[in-house]
Amino acid sequence: MPFSKKPLNLLVVEDNPGDYALLNEYLQMSELSAGRTVHADSIAAAAELIQKNDFDIALLDLSLPDSSGIDSVITLDRLLPQTPIVVFSGLADVGIAMEAISLGAQDYLVKGEFDEKLLGKIVHYSIERKRMVEKLRQSNERYEFVNKATLDTIWEWNFETNKGLWGDGIISTFGYSKGDLEYGEEWIGKYIHPEDREIIITSLEQNLISRLQHWQNEFRFRCADGDYKYVYDRGFVLYDDKGEPFRMIGAMTDITEKRKLEKELAEQELAQQKLITEVTIQAQEKERNQLGKELHDNINQVLATIKMFLGMSVEQEGMRPDLIQRSLTNVNYAIEEIRKLSKSLVAPSLGDIGLADALQELAEEINLANRLKVELVNGINEAHKIDKNMELVLYRIAQEQLNNIRKYAKAEKAVITIRTERGNLFFSVADNGIGFDPKAKARGIGLKNITSRVDFYSGTMSIISAPGQGCTIEINIPLS
């Protein structure tokens, strides 16, 4: 291949005049583009020339008056760190020449066994090899800089050897030592939380099966002290010509604080939502109490007065007793309905009778006034305390659902069940009515009210129903 036409400045460090003359003649005969050739007969002389000149390559004899062997290579490489070095050696020095290459020299020539063509090739290849080594060195420096500058943990995995390397983040972020920088195929079992392993294994396998280059996931990563941190991991997969993965490079970010802040924010939002719900419920109860008292104290009293006047009119002559009697009947009906409505609106005094007694009273009232028969199954353990606000919420839920049953279910029987067990409160209202399809039927205001009340206490609610099979509302609320 043709050599570069760029004029080359050469430094020849050779103390033997005959060897230098022969080398210089070969240089002129070679296809190398001639530049300046500067001669030094010792390391000390070479050091002075290096301070005044720039060189593209240095040719070094291993036997000099002020230095010899490997020491000459080490010294000249320190003086010319960016410049390729080719060493001259006798047959007896071949082993030393090979060691010189391991310490920084690019190639070597055996004296008396090369010509201008071999000299030209070695000079050209040495320059190219040094350039490639320098690029690799700069690339490694950039990698080390990024590895130290970033908060991420850089990593790489070799599919052929089933081994990988961690960056310095494994030390600074997760507390491991330099001895842990290399890892093997057992890494998933060693570093990933047991509950996350299957997810990560499946995710990686699917990524490779689909021949995707980019992979990402979140999981818990084990620290050196045994604790776990949440990490966001992503990688880039390299495939060969056959589509087989041979290497994967990635970076892992510690998102533990982010997860913690997200959790705190979610808890704050939940607390805010609970506060709004509590205020709404209290406002509803206050409004219902006021309305119930108004019905009882004002409208009901007016109707009672009308009833009294109608009764007095029946005793007078000239009136139609049949119309008056019908009016009395209607007024009696209105008074009774208002009494029921006002009682349902005004919150019961649960502090006096307790939830179970209030529910029993509610069931008995419905049993007297309707064809629907309501039964209460009480399994409350007195050891579990239920606060008064929760008792009122459960009472309203029972009221709401029994009202729904009376309106729509066409049921003959309903059962209210309440019990406490293992720190949880179980509450249900079931009927034997016509039922419905929960998926097909939109939830009305009544069910939405029940749901909001249950959510306030971090409880869960499920609706079990089907056409012709009645309906059951099951509620589970933690008491702690």
Based on the coordinates given, report the CATH architecture of the largest domain: 3-Layer(aba) Sandwich
pLDDT averaged over residues: 81
How many strand elements?
A: 18
**Secondary-structure-derived class:** alpha/beta
CATH superfamily of the largest domain: Response regulator
In the CATH scheme, the class of the largest domain would be: Alpha Beta
Distance between the terminal alpha carbons, to the nearest Å? 84 Å
* CATH-defined topology of the largest domain: Rossmann fold
For the biggest sheet, the summary is:
6 strands, antiparallel
Silhouette: rod-shaped
Overall domain count: 4
Note poorly predicted spans.
Answer: none
Q: Order of strands in the sheet with the most strands?
A: 10-9-8-13-12-11
Keywords:
single chain, about 475 residues, alpha/beta, Rossmann fold, Beta-Lactamase, six-stranded antiparallel sheet, about 50% helix
Task: Describe the 3D structure.
The protein is of the alpha/beta class and 480 residues long. 50% of the residues lie in helices and 24% in strands. The protein is built from 13 helices and 18 strands. The protein has a six-stranded antiparallel beta sheet with strand order 10-9-8-13-12-11, sandwiched between helices. Strands 2-1-3-6-7 form a five-stranded parallel beta sheet, sandwiched between helices. The longest helix has 59 residues, at 256-314. The relative contact order is 0.05. The mean pLDDT is 81.
Q: Quick gist of this model?
A:
By secondary structure, the chain is of the alpha/beta class.
What is the element layout, followed by pairings?
Blueprint: E1 8-13, H1 17-29, E2 34-40, H2 43-52, E3 57-61, E4 63-64, E5 67-68, H3 70-79, E6 85-89, H4 94-102, E7 107-110, H5 116-149, E8 153-158, E9 163-166, H6 169-172, E10 182-184, H7 187-191, H8 194-209, E11 214-222, E12 228-239, E13 245-254, H9 256-314, H10 321-345, H11 350-369, E14 373-379, H12 388-409, E15 413-421, E16 424-431, H13 445-456, E17 460-465, E18 471-478
Helix pairs in contact: 1-5, 2-3, 9-10, 9-13, 11-12, 12-13
